[in-house]
Design goal:
Oligomer: single chain
Structural class: alpha/beta
Largest sheet: 5 strands, parallel
Helix content: 40-55%
Number of strands: 5
Distance between the termini: 25 Å
Shape: elongated
Strand content: 5-15%
Order of helices and strands: HHEHEHHEHEHHEHHHH
Radius of gyration: 21 Å
Strand order of the largest sheet: 2-3-4-1-5
Number of helices: 12
């Protein structure tokens, strides 16, 4: 609907864009540098940030950058599973048939790490949902992997609650093993405006579709969270299209946000 109205080639605020089409800012560059360090020198990494801040986008770009390197990755987002179920899932995603007994699954995963071509990196998304028992199991995997070559590495990524969990006394040993950590923060006001311009340009549109005032308002209303910006920007485009407006002005913004304020 609004694609034709604003002469856009594609959806400008798509949640599932290709890695090459993702917004790249200083936050992403800093995070990517730390994650790349993890694959070469680190052992355990932790990436945190509020929901919708762009952690998934950073992971997607990171995984894309690993395609030319000797690094095998396993991505797991079902972190709410019980500890035993999580270990079985890891083994399954490694192409193995899980053995009986936790100790045997440990050995199975480590044996698989030895057979990997290069580094084996286990990525746990939504890691703030991991149980204490699961975190202990992951620590044991890292501890057991000290003499494994090629090495087994783990990346935990989740919301800010993960940092609080790691501060508990029972996870002190795991916390001390974190060699790479990064907290992804929301966009600033200028970054938000640049983000909106980039997304519109990627879709073949004119960045002036959104007035400068609306870009500022988008930041203030969403707190600079890219996912929230995406959702609100789409609502603004729809509102402007219905009104037959040539651009998204403050009036279209106010009408769009009226629906969001219900929540």
């Amino acid at each position: 609907m609004y694609l034709e109205h604003f002469q856009l080639r594609s959806q400008p605020f798509c949640e599932h864009a290709a890695a090459t089409a993702l917004w790249q800012d200083q936050r992403m560059k800093e995070g990517l540098a730390r994650l790349e360090f993890l694959t070469t020198m680190g052992e355990l990494g932790m990436l945190t940030g509020p929901s919708g801040v762009g952690k998934s986008a950073l992971i997607k770009r990171f995984l894309s950058s690993l395609m030319q390197q000797q690094c095998e990755t396993v991505y797991c987002h079902l972190t709410h599973l019980p500890a035993a179920g999580l270990l079985k899932l890891i083994a399954t995603q490694l192409g193995e048939s899980p053995r009986r007994g936790k100790d045997r699954i440990y050995e199975q995963i480590l044996e698989r790490a030895r057979r990997a071509e290069g580094t084996l990196l286990l990525i746990f998304d939504e890691a703030h949902l991991l149980t204490s028992e699961s975190l202990t199991d992951l620590r044991l995997l890292i501890s057991s992997a000290l003499d494994v070559g090629p090495p087994l590495k783990i990346l935990l990524t989740g919301q800010d609650a993960l940092r609080n969990t790691m501060k508990r006394a029972q996870h002190a040993d795991l916390l001390n093993r974190i060699s790479v950590r990064y907290q992804l923060r929301p966009l600033g006001k200028q970054q938000t405006a640049q983000y909106v311009d980039f997304q519109i340009s990627q879709a073949g549109g004119n960045p002036k579709i959104f007035s400068e005032e609306v870009k500022d308002l988008l930041h203030d209303f969403t707190g600079g969270l890219p996912r929230a910006i995406n959702n609100l920007a789409i609502a603004c485009l729809l509102q402007a299209t219905v009104a037959g407006a040539a651009r998204v002005d403050e009036d279209a913004f106010r009408q769009a946000t009226a629906e969001f304020q219900l929540f």
